[in-house]
Amino acid sequence: MKMSCKKMVSCVIIGIMVMGLVASHANAITCTEAISTLMPCKDYLIGKSNFVSVPCCTGASALNGKVKTKPELKSMCECLKQAAAALHVIPERAKSLPAICKITTPIPIDPNADCNSI
């Protein structure tokens, strides 16, 4: 049963990637790239680990530096919102990630985020 749940989550993530939720500019990071960049954070975000890894913070910092315009921020918010819901991210952990990684970002990694408020 656990294996089918893992397969389902993987299918949802791949579905998000295939949908091609891309940022508005050719040089902007895509949804696929963003999810890949944040995958080192997964264990912390879903409660499998109590520690944030260095690769997680490196990825979060890199992503933070690539998304600048309001349309890019909104697009990335929608991307991460869907990924967070698919992975069953713990909202409190997602909200704590910027402080732990010492970054400031307007993009919430939260399945309950209001991306229209960006």
Automatic annotation (TrEMBL):
Alphabetized PROSITE patterns for the sequence: PLANT_LTP
Signal peptide: 1-28
Gene Ontology molecular-function annotations: lipid binding
Keyword Signal annotated: yes
CDD domains given in the database record: nsLTP1
SUPFAM superfamilies documented for this protein: Bifunctional inhibitor/lipid-transfer protein/seed storage 2S albumin (SSF47699)
InterPro entries membership: Bifun_inhib/LTP/seed_sf (IPR036312), Bifunc_inhib/LTP/seed_store (IPR016140), Plant_nsLTP (IPR000528)
Keywords annotated in UniProt: Lipid-binding, Signal, Transport
Residue span(s) of domain Bifunctional inhibitor/plant lipid transfer protein/seed storage helical: 31-115
Lineage top rank: taxon: Eukaryota
Keyword Cell membrane attached: no
Pfam families in UniProt: Tryp_alpha_amyl
GO biological process: lipid transport
Alphabetical list of PANTHER family matching this protein: NON-SPECIFIC LIPID-TRANSFER PROTEIN 2-RELATED
Family: Belongs to the plant LTP family.
Physiological role: Plant non-specific lipid-transfer proteins transfer phospholipids as well as galactolipids across membranes. May play a role in wax or cutin deposition in the cell walls of expanding epidermal cells and certain secretory tissues.
Protein name per Swiss-Prot or TrEMBL: Non-specific lipid-transfer protein
The organism of origin for this protein: Erythranthe guttata
